[in-house]
């Protein structure tokens, strides 16, 4: 039997105090929605429906950005979690099998947890709810158990004093057969403290019908929902910690783990070393043995084995560093391929360029890639020596083993093996410096000019 995933994401997220829908706020470089879809993908759904609010075409786009087959459906009015799930009914009309319901703002549910829920279903429970023992149960819905049987779920607002003392809370994650789920919700009313159609009421309806329900529990941290910016920051911190531990487990040295920030998709090879205060944006792969030195910012880049980046380097999207390449301090690389063993060690901008293997790019070299309207390419061959403070006015090409003299402004291609030199010949005026300074000091002494 196949599985389907329904992700609820129609909530306004009022407490974020934001123009951006809550599920589009990012965690480790990806929208919360993608984290939730990723968590749900552990159930291996053949169908995925995301329930979004009205006028949220940006959320729909983000949902389809995760996977083209993800179907966004609109909940025109926010009438409760049960009502929200019903919006997916038409999209799943031809689907038979189990449905997992997850929330778009609950990104940490572990694959094993969904597996355990599937197992509880296979073991015969008609409705399986994910619960957790809360340190502070606050306003969560409470799971009313009778042994291993889940009798009903009571929302905090509707709970008696005695029920509020229950610590076992509802995470919101539910698994049930699709047709059973929709037909149970059909029977759910909205006669409660919130006037909403509660998904949680399906448990009591199931009991009435002689269907069984049970709870699977997980750690509270997994069910952490995000409702405010403070909770988003707390979730970020938790996620970063997990990524740091996972990286170290995989054989990466983090000198000061708390100061390194990853993206959801950062990949670091074994024996890579990351020095303090490094930020990885999305789309970075660092191969084995590479060293990312302190205070570097890297996104959309591939760093070859044994390469050294930084300190204080910036790699922007499309940076492709060959094995053993070196990018030094205050160097920015964008959409550029740096060949094996090539060096760009100081104060340079290399954008829309290729640098051949073994080439050395001198301090202060700039690829002038942008004319204000168009971007142009710079092509540097192998074993080229680019002198300090060279301006490469793209499009331009430097042949293999060519050189540029320091301070050269390269506007024309340099043939292989040639040296480009374009600067004004130096002239020395004997004694002029001293004479000049003397005159200035005299002027100052007469108070003619302010220092
Ligand atoms: C819900 C549960 C509660 C549980 C808690 C866990 C119900 C009735 N209550 O309460 O038992 O302890 O989650 O966090 O289910 N949503 C929609 N459309 C709606 C309403 C909600 O899409 O009409 C979505 C929200 O975007 C959110 C999720 O459903 O992702 C939960 O909604 P929320 O209002 O946060 O539910 P709680 O009141 O916190
Ligand atoms: Ca909530």
Commentary on this structure:
With 451 residues, this protein is of the alpha/beta class. The chain folds into 2 domains: 2-223, Spore Coat Polysaccharide Biosynthesis Protein SpsA, Chain A (Alpha-Beta Complex), CATH 3.90.550.10; 248-420, Hexapeptide repeat proteins (UDP N-Acetylglucosamine Acyltransferase, domain 1, 3 Solenoid), CATH 2.160.10.10. A hairpin with a 2-residue loop joins strand 2 (26-27) and strand 3 (30-31). The radius of gyration is 31 Å and the shape is elongated. The N and C termini lie far apart (85 Å). The protein binds uridine-diphosphate-N-acetylglucosamine and calcium ion (CA). Residues 8-11, 51, 75, 78-81, 83-84, 103-105, 140-141, 153, 155, 169-172, 198-200, 225 line the site of uridine-diphosphate-N-acetylglucosamine. Calcium ion (CA) is lined by residues 225, 227.
């Amino acid at each position: 039997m196949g599985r389907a995933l329904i992700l609820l994401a129609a909530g306004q997220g009022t407490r974020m105090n934001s123009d951006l829908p809550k599920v589009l706020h990012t965690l480790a470089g990806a929208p919360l929605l993608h984290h939730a879809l990723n968590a749900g993908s552990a159930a291996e759904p053949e169908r995925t429906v995301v329930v979004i609010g009205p006028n949220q075409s940006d959320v729909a786009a983000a949902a389809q950005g995760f996977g083209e087959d993800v179907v966004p459906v609109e909940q025109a009015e926010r009438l409760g979690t049960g009502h929200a799930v019903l919006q997916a009914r038409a999209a799943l009309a031809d689907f038979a099998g189990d449905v997992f319901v997850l929330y778009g703002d609950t990104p940490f549910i572990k694959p094993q947890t969904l597996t355990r829920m599937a197992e509880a279903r296979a073991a015969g429970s008609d409705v399986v709810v994910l619960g957790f023992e809360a340190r502070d149960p606050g306003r969560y819905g409470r799971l009313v158990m009778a042994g291993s049987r889940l009798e009903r779920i009571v929302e905090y607002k509707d709970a008696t004093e005695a029920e509020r003392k229950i610590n076992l809370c509802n995470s919101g994650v539910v698994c049930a057969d699709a047709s059973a789920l929709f037909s149970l919700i059909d029977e759910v009313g909205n006669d409660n403290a919130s006037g909403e159609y509660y998904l949680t009421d399906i448990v009591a309806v199931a009991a009435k019908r002689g269907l069984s329900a049970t709870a699977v529990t997980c750690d509270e941290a997994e069910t952490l929902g995000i409702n405010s910016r403070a909770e988003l920051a707390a979730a970020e911190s938790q996620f970063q910690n997990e990524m740091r531990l996972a990286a170290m487990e995989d054989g990466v040295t983090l000198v000061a783990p708390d100061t390194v920030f990853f993206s959801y998709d950062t990949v670091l090879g074994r024996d890579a070393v990351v020095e303090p205060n490094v930020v990885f944006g999305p789309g970075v792969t660092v191969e084995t043995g590479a060293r990312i030195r302190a205070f570097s910012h890297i996104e959309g880049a591939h760093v070859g084995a044994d390469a050294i980046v930084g300190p204080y380097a910036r790699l922007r999207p499309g940076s492709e560093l060959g094995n053993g390449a070196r990018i030094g301090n205050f160097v920015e690389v964008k959409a550029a391929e740096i060949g094996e063993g090539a060096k760009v060690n100081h104060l340079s901008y290399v954008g829309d360029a290729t640098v051949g293997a073994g080439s050395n790019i001198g301090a202060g070299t700039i690829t002038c890639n942008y004319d204000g309207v168009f971007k142009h390419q710079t092509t540097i061959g192998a074993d080229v020596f680019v002198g300090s403070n060279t301006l490469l006015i793209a499009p331009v090409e430097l042949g293999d083993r060519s050189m540029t003299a320091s301070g050269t402004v390269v506007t024309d291609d340099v043939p292989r093996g040639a040296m480009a030199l374009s600067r004004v010949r130096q002239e020395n005026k004997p004694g002029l410096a001293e004479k000049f300074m003397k005159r200035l000091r005299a002027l100052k002494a007469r108070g003619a000019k302010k220092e």
